[in-house]
Design goal:
- By secondary structure, the protein is mainly alpha-helical.
- It folds into two domains: 46 residues, no CATH class; 50 residues, no CATH class.
- Strand 1 and strand 2 form a beta hairpin.
- The longest helix is centred in the middle third of the chain and has 16 residues.
């Protein structure tokens, strides 16, 4: 929803089905309702179709998810995560260049 902005359940459902195996509409609806209840989404009920919007910034969500992932999968070690990522054949030459550049900047701090 960060990419497309405020959206209906139907729109989100259709986008999900473009990217993965078929998801049942009621599952999408229920998930969005739960996310609304937990404060992750807001719902505008002023029109016939309810419009949902994100209530939490993308960077915050990604940061929280990444921290939990590193904690659970790599015992809290960012370096183990980085080694696993770099050992992956999917890392492009350009991505490796960017990583080296970032590491060099960190050395100069």
């Amino acid at each position: 929803m960060w990419e497309f902005g405020p959206s209906t359940v139907r729109f989100v459902h259709d986008k999900l089905n473009e990217k993965k195996e078929a998801v049942i509409y009621t599952s999408t609806l229920k998930l969005m309702q739960v996310m609304n209840e937990k404060g992750m989404l807001t719902r505008d009920e002023s029109s016939m179709k309810h419009i949902y919007s994100v209530a939490i910034k993308e960077d915050k969500v990604k940061g929280n998810l990444l921290s939990r992932f590193v904690d659970h999968m790599f015992n809290g070690s960012s370096s183990k995560l980085l080694v696993a990522l770099l050992d992956n054949d999917k890392t492009s030459v350009e991505e490796l260049r960017q990583i080296k550049e970032m590491l060099n900047k960190m050395d100069n701090i």
